[in-house]
Amino acid sequence: MERHPEGSQAFLPMTADPFLVVVAPAAGGRPGRPRALLSRPGQGVNYARGTRHGVPAPLSLPGLLAVIDRIGPGPNLVKHGWAEPWIVGG
User: Fold this and answer.
1) Which of 30, 36, 75, 83 gets the highest tally of CB atoms within 10 A of its CB?
2) pLDDT at 40
3) Is residue 73 part of a domain?
4) What's the pTM value of the predicted model, to 2 decimals?
């Protein structure tokens, strides 16, 4: 999971194929339980500043996404990982 404390981040698909979106609520300064969502075909995603999210995962080839990110001074990336992997599905 990552978050960007200084600006939002947008992902725009370069094809009409859906992709996996993972977000998590804040939980005491760390990400809480992740939630996975499937985008609609051709839908982009814009994460608000500070939103905890995973890297979007294309589900079909070629899996191209354009990224719009903040440019400016200072760090804008905070990463968090877990000791055990999360499995999407059920």
Assistant:
1) 36
2) 95
3) no
4) 0.85
Q: Which amino acid is at 23?
A: V
Cβ proximity of 13 and 39 under 8 Å = yes
Residue with tokens 């979106």: 21
The pLDDT of residue 42: 92
Averaged pLDDT, 34-51 = 94
Note whether 75 and 4 are within 8 A (CB). Answer: no
| Tally of structural domains, the chain | 1
Distance CA 60, CA 82 (A): 26
Residue 10 belongs to what domain range? 2-64
- What is the rounded average pLDDT for all residues in the chain? 92
Nearest to 37 by CA among 18, 11, 65: 18
Cα–Cα distance, 57 to 22 (Å, whole number): 9
Q: Is residue 27 part of a domain?
A: yes
Domain at 45, CATH number: 2.60.120.480
